[in-house]
Structure formats: C-alpha cells, structure tokens
Amino acid sequence: MSAPSENLSASALAHFAKAFQQAPLWMASAPGRVNLIGEHIDYNDGFVLPAAIDRYFIALAAPNGSREIRIRSSHFEEEAVLCLDTPPTPDKATTLWMRYPLGVLAGFLERGAKIPGLDVWVESTIPLGSGLSSSAAFEVAFSSALEQAAGLSLSQVEKALLCQRAEHEFAGVPCGIMDQFASIMGRKDHLLLIDCQSQEMTPIAMNDDSVSLLVANTNVKHSLASSEYAKRKADCDEAKAQLGVTSWRELREEDLASVSGLLDDVLYKRARHVVTEIQRTQNAVEAIADKCWEELGELMFASHDSLAKDYEVSCPELDTVVVIARELGVSGGVYGARMTGGGFGGSTISLVNTSQAQAVLSYYGDHYQEHTGIQLDAFITRPAHGAHALRIASDS
C-alpha cells in the first residue's frame, strides 16, 4: 500500500459527517514510520534509516464560521478547542494530545497564516504509543490540512521543522528530525538515509520483493519512556562536553578505547552506543545496496544489543521478541530484529524472508504470548509513500 486504504478514508468521512453535520472540504494523510537502524542518534548528529509505513493518520477539515478550531477523534475522549484569537501556548492545552495540534497551529500563526475557524476530525490506523511515531504523523496530517485551509504550501523541510518544534515546545519531547522527515518525505519502496547533522536526505532503494519488514507491537509502554528519553539526551550532551568534541561524528569506534578513562561508566556506555550505531547505520546502507540481507540482519541484532546494554532503553518485552527472532534465525525466515523507537516498550522491527513472513508472524505471536501473557500485534509492511493531500469525491 502506498496510500491510506479506502476503508480508512470512508470511515473518517462518515465520522466527520456525524460529528459536524457537514462534509469536509480538505483531507490529508501522513504515515507512521519505522526505523530500520540508527536509534537514538537523530539528536546526536548521526545517520538514521527510517521508512514510512502503510499505517496512517488522516485529518479532515471544513470551515465552521467561528474563530475556533474544534478537533474530534474516536481515539481521544475529549474535544480539543483551539482559539485563533489567542496566541497558542502549551498551558492552553487542556489535554496532553491537544499539545500536538496546538504547537502546529502556533507555527502557522507565526508565519502570518490566515486560518479560518475549522471543524477537524482525525483518525488513525497507527497504534498509539507503539513507537511508530503516531505523534509525528498526527502533527504532519494536521499541518497538511492547515496548509490547504490557509492556501499555503510549505516546503517539506519547513513543515518537518515546524512539526518538530511543536514536539519540542508544546509536547516537551526533545526529539530529533527523523520522525517528521520520514512521515513527510517517505517514498514507496525506499528507505530514507537522513544525515541528522546536515539534514540531507538520500533515498535508499529497497525494492527487493524477497524481503519484507515485520513490525511487532509489544503492547506495553513503561512509564520510564518520557523521562528517560530526555535523560539520555542529557547524558550524551554531557559526554560530548567532557570529551571536548562538537559532534559525535568526530569519533569512530577505534577511538573509544582512548577516551574510556575520560568518562564514568554510564557516560562511556552512552558514547559507545552513539559512535557504534552511527557506524552500523552506514554499514547497513552498504549491505542494502549489495542485498546482503544476512549482514544487514546481524547489524540489526547488534543495534538491539547496544540499545539494551549500553543505552539501556529496552525492556523485557522488547528483548523477548528479539530472542524469539534469534531462535528462528535465517532458516526460519528472520534475518535480523531490533527494537525501534524510543524504547521502554513499543515495537520491534524485523527483516524477514517474504515467502516465510506469515509463518514468522504467527510464530512471534504464539511464543510472545506464551512468554509474557500479552498479545502481540504484528503486521507486515513495505516502505510507503509520505504525507499528501487526498482528493474528496464530489459525492461525499
């Protein structure tokens, strides 16, 4: 799939009509993302290798004749009301999820956008809180709808940075640029190599039908996730300062031994993850170009080990899925697997043999539940198309 399914669009249109007693004029979609490798280095000047996935947020909008934007969704219990005559600030968010569109609106108003009062409905097939960047997809879908309503056309980079700023200043998450870039710039059958230092993006073809991506949502999200994310970033900044480098790109794996005595144990482990993960991501690009899937799989397993032991952002449920993947191995259809996203729950990403993908999916589900007592929600995807406006049929 390279666009939201007809079922999702039809569902969103029906919900909009029921909620607001009118038809929408504008509709936009934005995909979630999965990161194949390069975790927790988007805010550390590294390289990341995400892909948009065929799970989406859709935002529908129509003028309502007021000076308010009213946002409703079946995913959230409360309606969000954004006032267009009051400067948006985080304290004006009455619910946590309202902070995302409020931050996006702030970015548009700062640019002098003339936005009418709107009724907005949002709907998603991205599992919320699963580490698949539902928040970025929400921001991007909403911003794409605002572009249409305001008659604006932001560049892809400008829109990504606007949404990232909303995440920083309104949601309080010091994320890098990966999630918003992947949601906006995703290409069908391509991964995106993003240089998070220069913000340069290079599409990496992954159009070999013999391999697929299997996303497995552990259905757990531990409370450490939000606070520990900011702490990891602070650890990395402190380690970099103590080492006297301006960018992690100044160090390579062979340099780590010589700097080990300059950092305490925790900061050294953080540094080791960042430096080795940057190198693993570059090696992964070469493996993909050569279609060396076993080599790519080993890099993914090594990435997970580093995230679990050096960066300490995994959890028992994520580790369980990776152990199951290792048990299956190449003969069982799995080349490699790792956690993806911020960690402490959420999802894993596995590179699997397409001909064995359904069998792997079933095996994962059975054995994960056996070990944890939790149902695993898993699906097979290929790199998908990024955010775009959707045409609304004239008879809708």
Write up this protein:
The protein is an alpha+beta fold and 396 residues long. The chain has two domains: 6-205, Ribosomal Protein S5, domain 2 (2-Layer Sandwich), CATH 3.30.230.10; 211-381, GHMP kinase, C-terminal domain (Alpha-Beta Plaits, 2-Layer Sandwich). The protein is built from eleven helices and 13 strands. The protein has a six-stranded mixed β-sheet with strand order 5-4-6-3-1-13, sandwiched between helices. The radius of gyration is 21 Å and the shape is globular. The two termini are 23 Å apart. The model has no long low-confidence stretch (mean pLDDT 93).
Short description:
The chain is an alpha+beta fold.
Q: Given the C-alpha coordinates, what overall shape results?
A: globular
Total tally of structural domains: 2
The class by helix and strand makeup works out as alpha+beta
Tell me the series of helices and strands, N- to C-terminal.
HEEEEEHEHHHEEEHHHHHEEHEE
Q: Can you list the strand order of the major beta sheet? A: 5-4-6-3-1-13
Query: How much β-strand is present in the residues?
Result: 15-25%
| Number of contiguous helices | 11
**Major sheet attributes:** 6 strands, mixed
Q: Measured on Cα atoms, how large is the radius of gyration?
A: 21 Å
Per CATH, the architecture of the largest domain is 2-Layer Sandwich
